Amino acid sequence: MSESSATGQQSKAEAKPRKFQAIKGVRDLLPAETPLWNHVEETAHAVFGTFGFSEIRLPIFEPTELFARAVGGETDIVSKEMYTFEDRDESMISLRPEATASVCRAYIEHNMQQLPQPVKLYYMGPMFRRERPQKGRYRQFYQIGAEVLGGNDAPGIDAEVIDMVMTFFDKLELQGLELDINSIGCRECRPKYVEVLRAALMKVKVQLGADSQRRIETNPLRVLDSKLESEQEVIATLPRMAAHLCAECAEHFAEVKRQLELRGVIYRENWRLVRGLDYYMRTTFEITAQGLGSQNAVCGGGRYDGLVELLGGPPTKGIGFAIGEDRLILSLQESGKAPAPPGRDIYIAWMGEKAFATAIRAAKDLRAAGYRVELPATEQKFGKALGQADKLGSRYALVLGEDEVSSGEWTLKTLADGSQKKYTESELLEYLRDTNVGGQQRT
Ligand code: AMP
């Protein structure tokens, strides 16, 4: 059917173009919010930089197989939540559900084991998981994360990584922070503990819900994660990892705690904080913040010494964390830490062709000096221009009419109190500089 006959047959109602909306679980970050996002990200660059971390920018999609291996084919993330599709060459690719796998892939691909070890990297950007959307849980969400790869597994590295996240959160003045830490042992001691735990779970099986009953077989550690109210009392009686750590793991954990204390980092031991995958070992940690309801975890992290090897690289130590940026922002907004979106420093109210030429030049000079300038593209009556300047949150209006252009004396109106004064162009720049107009942008 030709295009014209197709449109010819459409009824009027059908011809009305569809009004699109963002897909469920995915959202726009609007100008009222983006200054806070930028502030958070700039703070991350600054704080992580002071700890000697460098930024890595990673692809948004990778071979599906990378995540299946690194995150685990059996996990909810890979088995239910990944956005996976067949590319035109029939290879399977997935939108990244997290970034640790990509960092490890990049470490191997670029032979980073030849650099001075350990290699300290951080990243930020969107991740994709098809979860049930709710407050603090989205299908496109943002993480800021860091990884330390290579070198040894000195407890000082674990402590420093945790110290870095806490320093970052403190700098942002995130409220109600609680840091939970645990050790989940290693390949030697954990399997033995898992068997002890499984045996204990078998004895209380009838008191557990269906999910936990299933996990007794598939992944008993995950039972400890359960938030189900009816299971809490039983879980509290289960054997704990701490009593089953081998001597090396026990010593490592004790030293991580001692070093956190040396750094003044306040933590709480939480024996139920676990990771379900084999390559995770020893230190795990989670940080919660206030104002987030049930989705209150803002950061999760831990040691994963076997992961690089699992992805075909050399044996490599690894530890890292991922911060949920959306939740971090929500918490800051709840506690009133959001900066106001920037208005304009100067609105140029011009009238007449000659004045417009001067206005264009003035805008160029003021912008070059770093001021936020609004230059209306069409002529407006002064009254209307001032109203518009006010609506845009401008601090000043620069009034340029015929008089100002011919005398070279420009009128600067302070919108807060309506006062005004005349300046030559160079006096104006000097005045703005002396009164520190432009705030953050020009510091
Ligand atoms: P994970 O990669 O699952 O260890 O998650 C690390 C952090 O990312 C969590 O503590 C959350 O703050 C955040 N996060 C994970 N999934 C989501 C999601 N669907 N929406 C928003 N934030 C999330």
| Quaternary form | single chain
Q: Please compute the radius of gyration using only Cα atoms.
A: 29 Å
Number of helices: 17
Query: Could you tell me how far the N terminus lies from the C terminus, measured between alpha carbons in angstroms?
Result: 62 Å
The major β-sheet equals: 8 strands, mixed
* Overall pLDDT level: 92
Question: Per DSSP, what share of the residues sits in E-state strands of 2 or more residues?
Answer: 15-25%
Structural class: alpha+beta
Question: Low-confidence parts lasting 5 or more residues at pLDDT below 50?
Answer: 1-8, 439-443
What does the overall shape look like?
Answer: elongated
Tally the beta strands: 16
Binned, the helix content reads 25-40%
Hetero groups in this structure are: adenosine monophosphate
Within the largest sheet, what's the order of strands?
Answer: 1-5-6-11-10-9-7-8
